[in-house]
Design a protein that fits this description.
This protein is of the alpha/beta class. It has eleven helices and ten strands. It has two domains: about 190 residues, D-Maltodextrin-Binding Protein, domain 2, CATH 3.40.190; about 120 residues, D-Maltodextrin-Binding Protein, domain 2, CATH 3.40.190. Strands 1, 2, 3, 4, 5, 6, 7, 8, 9 and 10 form a ten-stranded mixed β-sheet that branches. About 5% of the residues have low confidence.
Length: about 325
């Protein structure tokens, strides 16, 4: 299924009113829900998780506690979820790391079989940002400047194999330039070092870097999607700025351990779809450059399997190795 077709179907599902597929689970939730995030606080995964946790706490009658477990491109948090009791009291926010890790490293869990996929939540473009002291002001200037300094320019990412990393690798592949990759354990620490001038540029998730671009602490030169982002309408796309065909977007979803009761999965799915339709949640996400989506568990499971297959081919073709 194409991304466009998936999103069109997901929108229909998110707004449709239909009877529940399963009876509501008695006594669930019976204690606080642990919401695992595989990155440090302040990054996009954390921002999306905390926005959702507030609404789930209000609607489910139990506190949803965000727990940051950074490292290994989300694999640490992902394994914790895979090994948790499958009762709906442990959930995990997924991003591209869940789909790219199988091609980068040997995992102690099955990225598909060990999970019950609940819903795709949102998608977001990335913003190509540079430190204000870095000379290039456009994509064309960045390419020309980089070709004169092969292997001398450092770029930050939220970790090896993340979309931020792969976006920059794809850009280098398509333009014939070469940078030096500096991976971090999340978008927030990567941005902090960039603000301090330790790195020159970053393909940052928009919710993580947009405020710094708005206040001038970083300079935005392009967005990575097919079209300009509503949150930054004056910033051109990479494609229209000199790299035709370039397009990358990030996504965020939620899963639980495999064998979580179907009724619990359905309850979580319905609560998440309800939260994504709330005006304040939609506005919060959109203001940060994230587009609310929503899906059924079956759609999200199919989407994840497609992402794992797609990124395995990209990683193999680019010769990217895990660290």
């Amino acid at each position: 299924m194409s991304r466009q077709a998936f999103r069109a179907l997901a929108v229909v599902v998110a707004v449709a009113v239909s009877p529940p597929l399963f009876a509501q689970p008695a006594g669930y939730p019976s204690k606080p829900i642990r919401f695992l995030v595989g990155f440090t606080p302040g990054g996009t995964n954390d921002i999306v998780a905390r926005a959702l946790a507030i609404k789930l706490t209000e609607s489910m009658g139990q506190t949803v506690v965000v727990e940051n477990r950074p490292g290994a491109n989300t694999a640490i948090a992902t394994e914790l979820c895979a090994r948790a009791v499958p009762d709906g009291h442990t959930i995990l926010i997924n991003s591209q790391g869940h789909a790219t890790n199988p091609a980068l490293t040997k995992l102690s869990f099955d990225p598909v079989g060990d999970f019950a996929f609940i819903s795709l939540l949102a998608e977001a473009q990335q913003l190509v940002v540079v430190h204000p002291s870095f000379p290039p002001k456009t994509v064309r200037e960045l390419i020309a400047f980089s070709k004169q300094r092969a292997g001398q320019i450092n770029y930050a990412s939220s970790g090896t194999g993340t979309t931020i990393h792969l976006s920059a690798e794809l850009f280098q592949f398509m333009t014939g330039i070469k940078w030096v990759h500096i991976p971090y354990k999340g978008g927030a620490p990567a941005v902090m070092d960039m603000l301090a001038g330790q790195t020159s540029l970053m393909f940052g998730s928009m919710p993580t870097v947009i405020q710094f671009a708005r206040n001038g602490k970083l300079r935005a030169i392009a967005v990575t999607g097919a079209k300009r982002a509503p949150a930054t309408p004056d910033i051109p796309t990479v494609a229209e700025s000199g790299v035709p065909g370039y397009e990358v977007t990030a996504w965020y979803g939620v899963s639980a351990p495999a064998k979580t009761p179907p009724a619990v999965v359905e309850r979580l799915n319905s609560e998440m779809l309800r939260a994504l339709k709330l005006p304040d949640v939609r506005e919060q996400l959109k203001s940060q450059g994230a587009d609310p989506v929503g899906s059924t568990p079956a759609q999200y499971s199919a989407f994840m399997q497609n992402e794992i297959s797609k990124w395995a081919k990209v990683i193999a073709a680019a010769g990217i190795k895990g660290e």
